[in-house]
Each structure stands twice: as C-alpha cells, then as structure tokens.
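Lab notebook, bench 4. Still working through the backlog of constructs that have no structural model yet. Next entry is a single chain of 329 residues. Request: give me the structure tokens for it.
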Amino acid sequence: MPAPPPPPTAMPIEATMSAILATAFAVLVGLHALQTRAPYAAPSRIPLQLPSPLVEPSKHCYEVFSWRYSAVWIGIFGLIVVSQAYEYFNAWGYVGVCGGLALPLMLQPMVYPQASAPVVEGKAIVNPDAARPFHQRYSTKATLYLVTYAFIGNYWYTHYFYSVLKAQYTMPSFRLNDVPIAMFLATHFYFCTYHASISNGILRYVDRSYESGWRKGLLFWFTVFFLSYFTAFMETLTISSFPYYSFEDRDMAYVWGSAFYGIYFIVSFPGFYYFDQQVDEGISQEKSLMDTFTIACGQGMMILTLLDFARLHLGIPLTIGGVAFATTS
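Model written out:
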C-alpha cells in the first residue's frame, strides 16, 4: 500500500510577508493609475509631500524639523542596536536614552518655535509659531496630541499585545502599569516620525496630486490601510534584533501582529493629517490645548475599541496585571 503523501509545509514567513506586501503594493499602483492628475501651483522646488511654506508655514516648518530630527534619533538608535550598547543599560540607562531622544521634540515648541527656516524663491519664511503665545502654537498642539496618544498606547494598548500576541519586555526597567516607562518616552519620537514625517507626506501627496472623486477617496483610504500595515510590520522587523522584546510566535507577530498594531494607525494617520488644518488661516485659535487633548483621547478610544473588537473575534481574554509602579531587573 503506497505511503500517504507528506503533509503540506507551511509557507515560510519571508514568502508570506512578501506575498502580502507585493499584492497590496500592486493594488496601490493600480489605484494610482486610475487617477486624474490635478493642477497644483506649488512654489518651485517644494515637493507635494510637504505643506506649502507660503500657505501652511506652521505645518511646513514643524514637519521639516521632524524630518531632520528623525535622521538624528534613528542614527543614534541604530548605533545602539547594532553595537549592542543596550547590554550595558540598567533601568536608568533606558530612561536616560529614550528620554534624552524624546526631549528635543518635547522642548521644541518652547525653545525653538521657528522649528526650521525655509527659503522660497530667495525669501525667508517666518514660522507664525514664533509670534504666537505658547499655547496657540501648532507645534505645541502637535506635541500634546502625540504625547497623549503615546501615553494611551503604552498604558492601554500594550496589554493587548501581552494578551493576544504574548509579547513581553524583559530588560531592566521602571514600569508603570507593567509597561516600561522608557517605552512611553520612545513611542513619542517614533510616533512623531511616523505621523509628522512619513504619513502626513504620503497622504498629502495623494490628496493634492489627484482630482477629487470616489477614485481618489478609494486610493486615499487604501493608502492609509497599506501604510498602517507596512509601518507596523517594519517596526516589528527592525526591533526583532533587540532580544528584550519578544513574542511567543514571531511569525504570527509579523503577519497578524502587524495587522493588530496597524489598527493604531488606521485611526491616527488620517486623524493627525487633518488635525488643525486651518492653523495658518487665522481661524484656528479656538482649537485650544484642551480641544487637542480631547481629540487625541477620542481617537485613542476609537483605537482601543477596534483592538477589543479584534480580541473578541479571536476569543482571547484580556488580562491586565501588575501594579502602578514597579522596577524589574
């Protein structure tokens, strides 16, 4: 009697992720091909990904600052990971590094409200934030939005990763609600790059390159979904060489964990893109810091609800343990 055929082997994770990303990218290219170009009178040499320094100087200066500082923190973080300098860190070391890298972004609205000094056709552009009171500056509100979002994400969403993906942090740390405080700090500069530098630029390119209509709307939201998944996957991939953040099943973390993490950005990428769009039109002073805080909390609640829907679909209980403050070594 002939032997039964061997059971099919699972597709390697590299092939699975390549297939997912290649398929999504092909759809994205196809949606771009369906669009009709829209005329856009941008100043010379200003790419569509950036806000116009003449029309939106506050956002332009802030996003340019974010791009420049992103190169700084990524370089320092990359050097720490490649050199494995983290092996010499204690809890204070992690807080010092992550807090030190977050500090320039948090202090920028106060100590350097100009943020950057663009020159368009020989004319220096002055950031209106430099003349505004601290509480009315776009950079102040953007920073508050991202700080609030980062806090909610760490304090609440991390426990979904603990429960659903069996993730864990094992490095020495001071913890708040069983989440390393260093991660609250690191999330701020990660999210500033993701939102102010990357997603705003990509969504703005789609928004301004094509004429309005259902096709552009479809492209815009598919871009949000693709960018959310891709961002989540790339963070999971790049952090995989750090041994003190681990998953029970890393292959599952790449495929499904990226989708789970991507839920964050499905809400926050368009939310931050549309945030305070009229800041330079003279009618935005009514959007106070309390308004900003409320918007960030509202979008944070939307994300929390979507995460819980996903958890309920998987049938996995949510467990939130730990104490208010703790130290692990």
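Notes after review: The longest strand covers residues 173-176. Helices lie at 13-33, 57-83, 91-111, 138-164, 181-209, 214-238, 250-274, 289-314. Flag for follow-up if needed.
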